[in-house]
Design goal:
By secondary structure, this protein is α+β, with helices and mostly antiparallel strands. It has one domain. 64% of the residues lie in helices and 17% in strands. The protein has five helices and four strands; from the N terminus they run H-E-E-H-H-E-E-H-H. The radius of gyration is 19 Å and the shape is globular. The N and C termini lie far apart (45 Å). 24% of the residues are buried. The model has no long low-confidence stretch (mean pLDDT 83).
Length: 169
């Protein structure tokens, strides 16, 4: 009975991850077919075609390394869910789904094209543009913030601090 209930908890994670991958891949396909810049909110938000051959902000331009790290992260998420199926809270499952879906979407690009398609361009002030990003990147960032908040709510950070503080004495 407990295993069936634990498996049902993974359903929302898979649904969120599949939705992120679908939106991400559809949007990237659209921008590759329509690479002309579009100004959505003048002076603030544009759609531009960009090929990111690195990680965040175009850093670490080693595709083999990035693919390996992404697969390792996906494997860790799967292994944690298998090893501790009743541990995740709803926010933890949502965040894991967002991170898993975003990482999978960008991994698909890296494997197919050797780069990640980015297209959301935000101008913060004057001529300072935040580096272009995509829906997968957004899902990973939002998922990471939700995960951190969820772990904070569970008291994990306090437990780690207390443990480290006790061992220093």
């Amino acid at each position: 009975m407990r295993k069936q209930q634990d498996r049902k908890q993974v359903g929302p994670l898979l649904l969120i991850a599949a939705s992120v991958v679908a939106l991400d891949q559809w949007s990237k396909s659209w921008i590759r077919a329509n690479p002309h810049p579009v100004e959505l909110l003048p002076g603030f938000l544009n759609i531009v075609y960009s090929e990111n051959r690195g990680a965040a902000f175009g850093l670490l331009v080693n595709q083999t390394f990035l693919i390996t790290i992404t697969i390792a992260i996906l494997a860790v998420i799967i292994l944690l869910l298998i090893r501790y199926p009743s541990l995740p809270t709803t926010p933890t499952l949502i965040s894991a789904g967002l991170i898993f879906g975003g990482a999978t979407g960008n991994l698909m690009d890296r494997l197919r094209f050797g780069y990640v398609t980015d297209f959301i361009d935000v101008r913060l002030w004057n001529d300072f543009h935040w580096p272009a990003f995509n829906f997968a990147d957004s899902a990973i960032v939002i998922g990471t913030f939700i995960m951190a908040y969820s772990l904070y709510q569970l008291g994990l950070f306090g437990k780690v601090y207390d443990h480290n503080h006790r061992t220093e004495r």
